[in-house]
Amino acid sequence: MTGSSATDSKGQLISRRSLAAASLTTAVAAVTLGSAVAPSRALAAGETSGRLDRILKSGKLRVGQFLQYKPYGFKTPQGDPDGFDVDLTKMIAADMGVEPEFVDNTWEGIIPALLADKFDLITANMALTLKRSLAVQFASPHSFTSTAFVFKTQDKDRFSSIEKFNDPNITISVLIQDAVHITLQRFFPQAKVVDFNTADEAILAMQTGRADASGAEISYLTQYVSEHQGLSVAAVTIPGSSSPAGMALLPGPDNDHLKTFLNTWIEFYYWNGKFEPLWKKWIPWSPLPKVEKFMAPV
């Protein structure tokens, strides 16, 4: 065989151009036929199509959740997962043609569990931060997280303005490793911050006098206050205090196709009208977030 030609079974010479044309015809036919040709057959020997292909073949999407943050994720009295992010995940899985499998985690342990491949992605209400991006990659944002404080209504005069929380005599309880820490460090550096394993425990610390206020995502606090008397919420409306939120995946090329699918899905999520009814179902008190400018090109 020479560097510019090959020989067929009849001894006839076939130019490389003819081989390329034949390969192109086969590839076009595979795309045109769709389901008639399995996607994995187009791969070279030993090559893998990645996590998305394995999810589709298994029929199961493993999802990391934090089911202690209503209305985003929580458990019903029957123990079933529910909430905004749970419904969002079910919609994604349905469009994939697979079943979601929810794996509950502590907030502190959810990223380590993803890195240990305990599930395929995190769909909990996770703010995009630089520190987290060093460990994981994010799909395009689909909503925002905004910080707020909850305190006893009897302390309204004490917290008459948002600036009152930036005080060295104030103790603020927070969920450990919550992105709220970034807001506190930037805008309320004088306050003393105490971490707790769950956001509910952080609020309980305030209710029992171990903290003066508790900081968390505003929709979570609004939901909590609607179910508990004697509490008030103060929103942090300082420009730059909100963060986009999105789904987290393991870094690396194994997840490239899955990330591309999620980014495409998020685009359609907005365009086909699925977003507004879902948001209004779970977070009716908050305006619809506008995240289009953060979306990656499809």
Write up this protein.
With 298 residues, the chain is of the alpha/beta class. It has 2 domains: 51-144 and 243-288, D-Maltodextrin-Binding Protein, domain 2; 147-235, Periplasmic binding protein-like II (D-Maltodextrin-Binding Protein, domain 2), CATH 3.40.190.10. The relative contact order is 0.14. The strands form 4 sheets. Strands 3, 6, 7, 8, 9 and 15 form a 6-stranded mixed sheet that branches. It has a 5-stranded mixed sheet with strand order 12-11-13-10-14. A two-stranded antiparallel sheet has the order 1-2. It has helices at 16-33, 51-58, 84-96, 110-115, 130-133, 180-187, 199-207, 218-227, 256-271, 275-282; strands at residues 5-7, 13-15, 60-65, 74-75, 81-82, 99-104, 121-127, 137-138, 143-145, 147-152, 171-175, 192-196, 213-217, 231-235, 243-249. It is elongated and about 60 Å long. The chain contains 10 helices and 15 strands. A hairpin with a 5-residue loop joins strand 4 (74-75) and strand 5. Helices cover 34% and strands 22% of the residues.
